[in-house]
Specification:
- The protein is mainly alpha-helical.
- It contains 5 helices and 2 strands; from the N terminus they run H-H-H-E-E-H-H.
- Strands 1-2 form a two-stranded antiparallel sheet.
- The protein starts with a helix and ends in a 23-residue tail after the last helix.
C-alpha cells in the first residue's frame, strides 16, 4: 500500500509541475500565482483531454492515451508560458517561465497536500469495499467504465430499462 500511495503522490506531483506554467498564467492574480491549484488543474486538464479524445473515438481510453495527454498538456502549458511577459512580484521567485512563491509557502502547501493524501489513504485502508450509501451505484458505473475500450460503456443491467420511454397515466 505504501508503494501505491507513493506512486499516487509522484504522479500528482508530476501533473502539478506540468500544469504549473498554465496555472501561473490563468491564476496570476492570486498571491502565489496559482501554485496551490497547479496539481488540481493538472489532474483536471489531463483527465479532460484524455476523456475528450476517448469520447470522440480517436483512441481507446488506456495508459498510452493518458501519457499522450500529459505530453499534450505539458506542451500547451509550456507554449502558453513562453508567450507570457514577466511580472515583477516582490516576494516571488522566477524560475524559467514559472513564477513561484517563497519556499515557506511551498513547504506549507506541500505539507497540507501530503497530510490530506495520507489521511485519505489511511481512511480507505480501513474500508476499501464499495458498499454503503451511494457506493454500489458508483461501483456499478465505474466497473464497466474501467473495462471499456471506448468512451461509452454499457449501462448496468438494472438501469438498462431507463432508456425506454415511460409515460404517466393521465
Amino acid at each position: 500500500m505504501a508503494l501505491d500511495v507513493f506512486r499516487t503522490w509522484l504522479i500528482i506531483q508530476l501533473l502539478g509541475i506540468i500544469a504549473l506554467p498554465l496555472s501561473n498564467l490563468l491564476l496570476r492574480a492570486l498571491p502565489d500565482r496559482g501554485y496551490a491549484f497547479s496539481k488540481t488543474l493538472g489532474l483536471l486538464v489531463v483527465s479532460f483531454v484524455a476523456w475528450l479524445i476517448a469520447m470522440l473515438g480517436i483512441s481507446p481510453f488506456n495508459g498510452p492515451l493518458l501519457v499522450a495527454s500529459i505530453g499534450v498538456v505539458g506542451l500547451i502549458s509550456w507554449w502558453l508560458a513562453r508567450k507570457r511577459t514577466p511580472d515583477s512580484g516582490t516576494n516571488l521567485q522566477r524560475i524559467g517561465v514559472v513564477t513561484l512563491p517563497g519556499w515557506r509557502t511551498i513547504i506549507a502547501y506541500e505539507a497540507i497536500f501530503l497530510a490530506a493524501l495520507l489521511f485519505v489513504a489511511w481512511m480507505r485502508s480501513y474500508d476499501a469495499v464499495p458498499w454503503g450509501t451511494e457506493r454500489p451505484m458508483d461501483f456499478a458505473f465505474l466497473t464497466p467504465s474501467s473495462a471499456a475500450r471506448v468512451s461509452h460503456p454499457t449501462t448496468p443491467g438494472w438501469l438498462a430499462i431507463a432508456s425506454t420511454t415511460i409515460t404517466s397515466a393521465t
